[in-house]
Amino acid sequence: MYLWVRFGGLFLSLVLLLAPWGLGAAEAPTLTLPELISLALQYSPEVKASKSEVRFAQEQQAEVKGYYYPQIDATVIGGVVPNARRPYVNGNSIVYPDPSNRLHGVNVFGRLDLSVVQPLYTFGKIAYRDRAAGKNIKVKEAGVDAKRGEVILHVAEAYYGLVLAEQGKDAVREARTYLTDTRDRITRLLEINSPNVRETDRYRLAVYEGGVEKFAAQAEEGAKVAYLALKALIGYDPNQDFRVPPELPNPAAAPGTLDQQIRTALEMRPEFTQLKEGLVARQLLVDAARADQYPSLFAAVMGALAGAPGRDTTRDPYINDFFNQAYAFPVVGLKWHLDFGISKAKVKQAQAELEQLQHNQRAALMGIPVEVAQVYGKVQENYRASKGLEKSYVNARRWLITAFSNFDMGLGKMEDIFEAFEKYGVFRGDYLMALYQYNLATAQLDKATGAYRRTLAAATPPPAPAPAPAKAN
Question: Strands (DSSP E) along 310-362, which ranges?
Answer without folding.
Answer: 325-335
